[in-house]
Amino acid sequence: MKLLVTGGAGFIGSNFILYWIKNHPEDTIVNFDKLTYAGNLENLKSVEKNKNYSFIQGDICDPKAVDKAMENINAVVHFAAESHVDRSIINPSDFVETNVLGTQVLLDMAVKHKVEKFHHISTDEVFGSLKLEDTNLFNERTNYNPRSPYSASKAGSDHLVRAYNTTYGLPITISNSSNNFGPYQFPEKFIPLAITNILENKKIPVYGDGLYVRDWLYVEDHCRAIDTILQKGKNGETYCVGGLTEDINNLEVVKKILNILGKHENMIEYVKDRPGHDRRYSLDWSKIKNELGWKPMHDFDEWLEKTVDWYKNNQDWWKNVKNGEYKRYYKRQYGSV
Ligand code: NAD
Ligand code: DAU
């Protein structure tokens, strides 16, 4: 099989490529990535010389480049996106362009090249926000209610993917996953931001009251879920992919990281809240478990500790990433924190 992976130089995309080459060495992978601030080929150093792997620097909004990359492709796995909620609040237009228009260009070319499978990576954020006091979870039947420019643009892309299935018969599947954590995550996201700030002896900015809840999924569990969907998923279906955590809030996450690193809670700094901050995400993954046999296997506490170790042992990786552009973004977002 020949796969086109978009956004393969980002956090989940690069973990997916490493996972796929290890588990399906007979397949060929083309990684198509624009290399925005979030794309980093260092993540893929260990496979760059593999004869079944190649890289194309390109923009998913560019029909000519996508047309060429799509030649002889059997399956598309579409990760490429602008992915950070806070940046979407500063500059929504990049999100609409890449996440909506870019997805539409890919879909057009997938139809033209008659690809056998188009798997779209989406997010639980399209479902909106749950209340802390609720006991309900998001599932595949939950109505869409995106509340940030990021989640609205991802919702738009999900609708387009389903529309191309209905209108043009393109074989598609979608996964809506919860918050991933693990190696190679860009340190603008909460867990790597907290770990690397502590390692630099800097404060950890916690938005609002810190009582926001996310459903945490170890990135390798996510890669295995995508593999399962590519092998066994049904055409046109959506699968929710979540982790093993139950209602852990941001403060508890930070306290766990501080504890692992032997640091004091006075490193926490409460900062201005994110506008429109979604209070709680929690995902029901029983459909993918019952229909396809996938379930998350990585315990949060154990793999958070391993993730902390990874950032401790790979300081060159994140110090290179926390460069000029990052510093400008950080100052704008957090001021002097
Ligand atoms: P990321 O920001 O780490 O990586 C995104 C990648 O896409 C980068 O390599 C970037 O260079 C590339 N890219 C951006 N714009 C592009 C364009 N126009 N053309 C080609 N490449 C482009 O993102 P991530 O956290 O790895 O997320 C990957 C996907 O998974 C996204 O679609 C995101 O919405 C989704 N998702 C992420 C999470 C999470 O917790 N990180 C959870 C659920 C879903
Ligand atoms: O739910 C899936 C989504 O998870 C993905 O679709 C997104 O691409 C991904 O970025 C992530 O979105 P979140 O907004 O949930 O992740 P983030 O790491 O930005 O924030 C996690 C929580 O931590 C959230 O409640 C906001 C809070 N936070 C975040 C940052 C960056 C802070 O308190 N302080 C911070 O500095």
Protein architecture, described:
With 337 residues, this protein is of the alpha/beta class. It has a domain at 2-181 and 216-241: NAD(P)-binding Rossmann-like Domain (Rossmann fold, 3-Layer(aba) Sandwich). It contains 12 helices and 13 strands. The strands form 4 sheets. Strands 3-2-1-4-5-6-11 form a 7-stranded parallel beta sheet, with helices on both faces. It is globular. The mean pLDDT is 98.
Furnish the topology, listing elements before pairings.
Blueprint: E1 2-6, H1 11-23, E2 28-33, E3 53-57, H2 63-69, E4 75-78, H3 85-90, H4 92-112, E5 117-123, H5 149-168, E6 172-177, E7 179-181, H6 190-199, E8 204-207, E9 213-214, E10 216-218, H7 219-232, E11 238-241, E12 248-249, H8 250-260, E13 268-271, H9 286-292, H10 300-313, H11 315-321, H12 324-334
Parallel strand pairs: 1-2, 1-4, 2-3, 4-5, 5-6, 6-11, 7-10, 8-13
Antiparallel strand pairs: 9-12
Helix pairs in contact: 1-7, 4-5, 6-8
This protein binds nicotinamide-adenine-dinucleotide (NAD) and 2'deoxy-thymidine-5'-diphospho-alpha-D-glucose.
The site of 2'deoxy-thymidine-5'-diphospho-alpha-D-glucose has 19 residues, from helix 6 and strand 8.
- Give the distinct bound molecules: nicotinamide-adenine-dinucleotide, 2'deoxy-thymidine-5'-diphospho-alpha-D-glucose
- Uncertain segments: none
Shape: globular
The CATH class of the domain at 2-181 and 216-241, by name, is: Alpha Beta
Name the beta content range.
15-25%
Structural class: alpha/beta
Figure out the total of helices: 12
Instruction: List the secondary-structure elements in sequence, H or E.
Output: EHEEHEHHEHEEHEEEHEEHEHHHH
Write the CATH architecture name of the domain at 2-181 and 216-241: 3-Layer(aba) Sandwich
Mean pLDDT: 98
Q: What is the subunit arrangement here?
A: single chain
Going across the major beta sheet, what is the strand order? 3-2-1-4-5-6-11
Span between termini: 48 Å
Helix content: 40-55%
CATH H level, superfamily name of the domain at 2-181 and 216-241: NAD(P)-binding Rossmann-like Domain
> How many E strands?
13
Q: Looking at CATH, which topology of the domain at 2-181 and 216-241 would you report?
A: Rossmann fold
From the alpha-carbon coordinates, what is the Rg to the nearest angstrom?
A: 19 Å
